[in-house]
Amino acid sequence: MKPRSSIVTPGTTPHPTLNFAYGSNMLTARIRERVPSARALGVATLKGHQLRWHKASKDGSGKCDVFAASDIDCVYGVLYELSLSDKDALDRAEGLGRGYSERRVDVNFMGDTVAASVYYATAVDPMLKPYSWYKELVVAGARQHGLPPEYIQALQGAGAMDDANLARHAKNMALLQLTAQTL
How many other C-beta atoms are found inside a 10 Å radius of the C-beta of residue 85? Predict the structure, then answer.
């Protein structure tokens, strides 16, 4: 299935850097709130990893993580090109040094191996669950970019919990509604 996002040529952003997004940042509207220069290049895969919802967030919920696993496992995500000048904003939004760290990984993108940055959890708790709005952001991003249906189904099957912070819940649901209107 061809991704719904437009595929652009890498290198069209001044001083670009590539980022592999696999959680809520797959949703274009979400990452552009954080990094206006973000341009979706298309779907990519990170081999030898599984998606886990165990990153300990400061809000008490679980967020996505790429967890090293067997060679047959892979995580689907979206390869984004970002302006290097915007990279600090994404680092701050992701809490770099406060639960996430960053490394370079090789992802498969359109049949080629491409080096990209990825955030991975440094503080995990396997008992955590994501908030329902967070899970929906992840699922919406997966749908928006045409990830495989069985992968989307697995994302939908993750357990979730309600967010007691109603303002945060409403803000994120509004982003989902806005995205749904533009698809």
Answer: 13
**Assigned domain for 87 exists:** yes
pLDDT of residue 178: 84
* Domain span at 63: 16-182
Q: What is the CATH number of the domain that holds 92?
A: 3.10.490.10
The number of domains in the chain is 1
**The one-letter amino acid at 168:** R
Distance CA 74, CA 118 (A): 14
Sequence-ordered list of residues with C-beta below 8 angstroms from that of 80, at least 6 positions apart, any chain: 18, 19, 20, 21, 25, 31, 38, 39, 40, 41
pLDDT in tens, 62-117: 999 999 999 999 999 999 999 998 999 999 998 888 889 999 999 999 999 999 99
| Structural element, H or E, at residue 135 | helix 132-144
Alpha-carbon torsion, ordered 55, 133, 38, 18, to 10 deg: 30
Q: 7 lies in a domain?
A: no
